[in-house]
Amino acid sequence: MHSEIENQSVAGANDLRNLCRIGGVAALIVLVYSLEMMIQIVVLGGQPTSAAEAFTLLQHNKLVGLMRLDLPTILVLPLYYLLFLGLYAALRLVDRAYALLATALAFVGVTLSLATPTALSMVPLADKYASASSDAVRAQLIAAGEAIMAGDIWHSSGSIVGGVLVECGAVLICVVMLRSGIFSKTTAWLGIVMHSLDGAHIVCGQIVPVAGVVLMAIAGPLYPVWLFLVGRRLIKLGAKN
């Protein structure tokens, strides 16, 4: 019986290390995505400002159109599940309640964001728009496209609430980091500041768009640094014997 308990304990420890390693890899993938998005915005431009512009992009170059409609963001968002699982595995013994609450907030937030319409919803509309035989049909398709864009991951109520929940969970997990000694204080404080700014950007952007842009311009460049520090540390924790 004693041997069986020891084996279960070892297996549980290995599982937790694996979660740390997986979370670390997820953080580094999100890091690559964040750098790609910075380059993409400079080279290709940001999100289309209208459904007509989105349809034109999708007709001329579907890949570029999907990228500017934030398909990469939708593909990367599920990695936050793995990242927060890894952080929970690393920090569960420091403060299990807060680590669990932070992970739950992030999970709910990501799920709400994923539930909103995505770039893929625009593709069939763009195809129908290209083959439309009358101005009336095209006007209907543009109206449908505008409705989808108004409810995307940046503008819908669900995604806004989801974004705030993710940032609240991230700030909370960074507070646990600060008390842990497992992550450096630099990593913890950087995360607290960065996610607080990003959360403020989501809220302020709905009221004063210019303020939201300024806040994101400050927070955005910090993401690659924080993700690198977190990913590297989680991978090291996962590799420990």
3D architecture notes:
The relative contact order is 0.15. The longest helix is centred in the N-terminal third of the chain and has 42 residues, at 2-43. The protein has one domain (2-239). It is an all-alpha fold. The protein has helices spanning 2-43, 51-60, 62-68, 71-76, 79-91, 96-114, 122-130, 135-150, 157-178, 185-207, 209-219, 222-239. The two termini are 24 Å apart.
What is the percent of helical residues? over 70%
Task: Indicate the mean pLDDT.
Answer: 87
Structural class of the helices, strands and pairings?
Answer: mainly alpha
List low-pLDDT spans: 1-11
What is the number of beta strands?
0
Distance, first to last CA: 24 Å
Computed over alpha carbons, the radius of gyration is 21 Å
Q: Tell me, what's the shape?
A: elongated
Total helical elements: 12
As for the number of domains, it is: 1
Strand content: under 5%
Topology order in helix (H) and strand (E) letters: HHHHHHHHHHHH
Oligomerization state of this entry? single chain
Largest sheet: none
Could you outline the blueprint of secondary structure elements for this entry?
Elements: H1 2-43, H2 51-60, H3 62-68, H4 71-76, H5 79-91, H6 96-114, H7 122-130, H8 135-150, H9 157-178, H10 185-207, H11 209-219, H12 222-239
Write a short abstract of this structure.
With 241 residues, the chain is mainly α.
